Predict the structure.
Amino acid sequence: MGGTRPATAFDFAGLKRALESSDADALTGLYAEDAEMTIVDRNRPPSAPLRLTGRTAIEAFWRDVCAREMTHRVGHEVIGPDRAAFVEECGYPDGCAVMSAMTLDLQAGRIVKHLTVQAWDEVSFADS
């Protein structure tokens, strides 16, 4: 028999549940300890994106997002053994809509790199 072990599958259904229910603990648990997150949007352009390194920094990000009064809907997913991509659509009570395209690099069933490119309505979010 070969010496290769089967890859640990990533729990995309768990990610979707965690995002749609604003569960920061469950989201954080999906990341590798040394994961990296990069976010590009109007305030953080490609030349100067927001970069978070390590699960602790990523946890703080998700705690902030999950504490906001907003809805999340995940769809358009494409899932492979070492990468997943999807779109998240969010809505705030004031009518502001946010759309994020996310790509996740995966290893051993955990997120090791996360890229988000997002845009939102100009209704609010002057300081996002």
The longest strand covers residues 97-107. The helical segments are 12-20, 24-28, 55-67. Confidence is low (pLDDT under 50) at residues 124-128. The beta strands are 31-40, 50-53, 71-79, 83-91, 97-107, 110-120.
